Amino acid sequence: MNLFSLNARIYFGIGCWHKLPELLKDHAFARIGVLIDKNIAGVPIVNDIIDSIDNSGLSVVFRYPVDTGFEPTYDYLDTVADDIRNHSIDVVVGIGGGSTLDVCKGVGILQRNPGKAISYRGMDKVASPGIASILLPTTAGTGSEVTATASFVDQNTKTKLGINGRFVAPLFGMLCPELVCSCPRSISVSSALDAMVHAVEAATAKPATEFSKALGCEAFKILYTNLPDSLNEADDLKLRESMLAGSCLAGMAMVNCGGGPASGISYPLGTQYNVPHGLAGGIFLPYVFTYNASSGYDGYADLLTNGADVGDTKSRLERSEAFAERFQQFYQRIDAPERLSDAGFTGIDCELLTDLTMRDRQYNLSVNPIHFGAKEVADILEKVV
User: Fold this and answer.
1) 134-150 mean pLDDT
2) Among 161, 226, 349, 368, which is 20 to 30 Å from 375 by CA?
3) pTM reported for the whole predicted model
4) Nearest CA to 23 among 164, 148, 173, 151?
């Protein structure tokens, strides 16, 4: 028996942010805290959203600039939660990328659950509902608005493991394409690659269900077909809207299936060398495609046959192999880094990363449709450094 669940309601489309004050009133939220990624705090649309709350008669008690650095840590989450605890807020609104949204979820939990954030690391450790969180992503990538997880780094062990399960999901998300238009090209690319990893692995992993396959395939098709144009036409709201839809669908698929090798290897790469999670997973993805297809996996035939134009007359395996080749060409179209050195990351210790992956990310390797062990991890790392 399989369980498929969705964790949040989504308001979606151009101008949907105008509905936020009404929704806050409908839920009887009077005292609102807003967490804003410090990098977008001065963007006009962000000010417009906050002003719309103030002008509706509600009280924005504080605006907190979130500065997570590379990725949020449990210690940083404790600091933010402590700063906010005395404000007696009813709801926390998060505006920013995946790291800011994770902090928003964590802050909500810690307002009504005692102790340090790290004590809730793992699955279903949160005993009581926190205050509600409402998430407005400014990147099309993580799908945080539909996941019951918030990821943080333990600085002492240099490992990344989230607060997961009940009471973690947001009350609802708002996918506003206007918020994504200011996203720099490099972040747009890495965010989209993060969503692509979610989509592909949810559609092809061993635990994949008909639901995760359907959502993953559709998400990947949307992202694959819209990303190049969205990068070249950054102010096109319909293209940005499509990217947000693809990211959200990928998040729905991923949270119900889990990640594979590209996700798994990217975790120690991030904690050890500060490589952004989306960029790391995205760099691995073409190599995982090629490895699986060349090893006889034909499941990519279902992923994007029409979008990748690999032809319906070929066998499933031939279409799967052709798709892996086309995806390499896609990387060149979007000017994505194909090696870590291309993105400025050097001095990578492949042996260390192989050992850490085998120690901490066995699940991610085990769900790959083709056997993926230490040799394969080492081989793929050697290819990407």
Assistant:
1) 94
2) 161
3) 0.93
4) 173
